[in-house]
């Protein structure tokens, strides 16, 4: 008999109407009533927190990771019910924090509360149970709208539609329909280059470049962050004429602050060697992130900074694929 532990964190799936709008308010017994399952599987329930996922913090990722790690010998699989707004960040974070754990970890939620007449929650719960029981795949997966998405490759694309999430730069792992799983792309065994480290350094900053951004902002960051992620234009370029941001990158790197360069384009990654505006950034010390999602970069850099401040080691770790987060395309 498979044993599954459901960890509830709140989110829309467990929300009820309040005076100020929807907010998590369903009890664990009420939520458990929607987890219908056969007698050949045992399902336990535990409330870890009860919050809108907008309020989820890196410290909450640690709580989730430690709970799963402590219970790994008692359960075959884990299901986390979670709000959708930061679900992709949590999925990516757990992929690093629990790297190497040979368990199926499923994260699901809904766009509409489970208690509402028209809701996607019931299907997502059923699909999550099916995947947790039958998939026999290790790692972190988001189960939503009949699809299984690798935890490091999911992005929330829609605020209302049931198909809220998409897999970016990586194939969908499986489809789930009527308690049947169809594996579409089975991830290969992950690298064992790193030992499991359940720790986070949240002192990172995410900056989206736009025309007109003042280079003076980089001076502010020197004393306010331990790592910077820049969503650049196109293939990884930054302006160096008039408002010179490349020098800002160089100055931060010289201060020992890693600067990771990604792209505002969701698909197909980046190639900083293609244009002069990209090569200058690379020469200034910018670390290319290939085809990684921003959500994964944020979580990975926080995880890395909890282990080292050495720039060369940070670059090596960030550019080493973990949980299939990098360079599939």
Automatic annotation (TrEMBL):
SMART domains xref list: Asparaginase (SM00870)
Domain Asparaginase/glutaminase C-terminal: 203-317
Naturally occurring in which organism (per UniProt): Sporolactobacillus nakayamae
Active site positions: 12
Sample GO molecular function, one term: asparaginase activity
Domain L-asparaginase N-terminal: 3-186
Superkingdom of the organism of origin: Bacteria
PROSITE patterns per UniProt: ASN_GLN_ASE_1, ASN_GLN_ASE_3
SUPFAM superfamilies for this protein: Glutaminase/Asparaginase
A Pfam family assignment: Asparaginase_C
Organism classification: Bacteria, Bacillati, Bacillota, Bacilli, Bacillales
TM regions (residue ranges): none
UniProt key word Metal-binding: no
Gene Ontology process terms (BP): amino acid metabolic process
First and last residue of the signal peptide: none
Name of the protein in its database record: asparaginase
Residues given in the record as substrate binding sites: 53, 84-85
InterPro entries, A to Z: AsnA_fam, Asp/glu_Ase-like_sf, Asparaginase/glutaminase-like, Asparaginase/glutaminase_AS1, Asparaginase_C, L-asparaginase_C, L-asparaginase_I, L-asparaginase_N
PANTHER family in UniProt: 60 KDA LYSOPHOSPHOLIPASE, L-ASPARAGINASE
EC number: 3.5.1.1
């Amino acid at each position: 008999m498979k044993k599954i532990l459901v960890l509830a964190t709140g989110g829309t799936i467990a929300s009820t109407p309040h005076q100020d709008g929807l907010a998590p308010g369903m009890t664990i017994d009420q939520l458990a009533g929607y987890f219908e399952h056969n007698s050949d599987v045992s399902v336990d329930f535990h409330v870890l927190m009860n919050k809108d996922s907008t309020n989820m913090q890196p410290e909450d990722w640690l709580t989730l990771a430690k709970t799963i790690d402590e219970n790994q010998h008692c359960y075959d699989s884990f299901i986390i019910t979670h709000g959708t707004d930061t679900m992709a960040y949590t999925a990516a974070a757990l992929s690093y924090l629990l790297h190497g754990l040979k368990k199926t970890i499923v994260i699901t939620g809904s766009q509409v509360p489970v208690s509402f007449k028209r809701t996607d929650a019931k299907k997502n719960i059923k699909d999550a149970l099916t995947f947790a029981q039958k998939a026999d795949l290790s790692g972190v997966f988001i189960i939503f709208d009949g699809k299984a998405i690798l935890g490091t490759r999911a992005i929330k694309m829609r605020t209302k539609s049931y198909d809220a999430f998409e897999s970016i730069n990586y194939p969908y792992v499986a489809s789930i329909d009527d308690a049947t799983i169809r594996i579409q792309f089975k991830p290969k065994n992950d690298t064992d280059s790193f030992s499991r480290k359940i720790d986070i350094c949240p002192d990172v900053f995410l900056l989206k470049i736009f025309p007109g951004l003042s280079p003076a902002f980089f001076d502010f960051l020197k004393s306010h962050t331990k790592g910077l992620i820049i969503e650049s234009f196109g293939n990884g370029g930054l302006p160096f004429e008039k408002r010179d941001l490349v020098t800002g990158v160089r100055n931060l790197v010289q201060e020992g602050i890693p600067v990771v360069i990604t792209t505002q384009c969701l698909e197909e990654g980046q190639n900083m060697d293609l244009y002069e505006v990209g090569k200058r950034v690379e020469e200034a010390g910018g670390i290319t992130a290939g085809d990684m999602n921003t959500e994964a970069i944020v979580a990975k850099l926080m995880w890395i900074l909890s282990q080292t401040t050495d720039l060369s080691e940070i670059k090596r770790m960030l550019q080493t694929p973990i949980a299939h987060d990098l360079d599939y395309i």
